[in-house]
Amino acid sequence: MKYAILGQSGLLVSRLAFGAMTFGSGNNPSVYKVDQSGAQQLINRALDAGINFFDTADGYADGQSEEILGRLLGSRRKEMVIATKGGFRVGPGLIQAGLSRKHLFEACEASLRRLNTDYIDLYIVHKTDPYTPLEETLEALNDLVRQGKVRYIGYSNWPAWQAAQAVSIQRERRWASFINGQLYYSLVGRDIEHETVPFAVQNRIGLTVWSPLAGGFLSGKYTKENWNDDQNRLSGFDFLPHDKEWGFNILDTVREIAGVYGATPAQVSLAWLLAQPHISSVLVGSSKLAQLEDNLSAVELQLSAGDIARLDEITRPVSLYPNWFTAKTTDTQIAKALEL
């Protein structure tokens, strides 16, 4: 396993993290489908491989994911970095959701109980909350850190402008600051490169990736003929928007590159992410041991600069304004003088 420091902190995390979203059962069996016995196998293999970074959330299988993860890490808990998230609805009450002070305090306490731990290493706000003042959310997070219930904080699925505003407030008021942004990123979903990546690099925020295989699409097991079959995961959780025709064309190239290395499409897709200098860790979630074994091998796969550039080119997102204007109007004389 390889490791990285997460953002502007001293927290050492494995480059591959284990995502426990599949643990438990519930109203979405295409996602929540791993019982405790299966989870034990997966966690044991992750530990054997050197993974020390485990991710879950209170909204996964009504908290079952946290319960199973906490139970199975057991006595090795203090050797591990546990990340969990709060913000999604966890009950029928109107206020049992969001990023208010009330809900975050209650959600964090509930996560601590389910994880059977005295502290959470990385507490992540799972999404934005347009109904709660940003300052209220940030002060609540700061208080959770000061109380010792949380060691570090992060955000997930926030736009760059809001994360930037938050960091500015945190610094101004000397509150605990975000060290992590957990975001969707894959070969068929590179939107974060427009604004989030430059912001994170500038502010030394470590980026971690959820759904690096685009919900399994980049595993290579789906074809144009079977991708919407009732029995596969994509049909039950086709949550990530991308043009499937374009995606299958990309997969053809990924398969071609995989053949050169004797690898799988999933390994190539993960290796491309791990080669990005702005990425600290990539979450791999599995429901079967064979899937996890395949994903673990990606950390040793070193793609050539030419293959990385090829994948970059065919998946490059269309530039947005004002980014394209900036690129077109950069002073080439100064750039040449600076040898940029």
Automatic annotation (TrEMBL):
GO molecular function: oxidoreductase activity
Domain of life from the UniProt record: Bacteria
Sequence intervals crossing the membrane: none
Alphabetical list of Pfam families matching this protein: Aldo_ket_red
Chain segments annotated as coiled-coil in the UniProt record: none
Signal peptide interval: 1-19
GO CC annotations, alphabetized: cytosol
InterPro entries found in the cross-reference section: AKR, AKR_Detox_Biosynth, NAD(P)_OxRdtase_dom_sf, NADP_OxRdtase_dom
Gene3D superfamilies given in the database record: NADP-dependent oxidoreductase domain
Keywords: Oxidoreductase, Signal
Boundaries of every NADP-dependent oxidoreductase domain copy: 15-314
Name of the protein: Aldo/keto reductase
Organism phylogeny: Bacteria, Bacillati, Bacillota, Bacilli, Bacillales
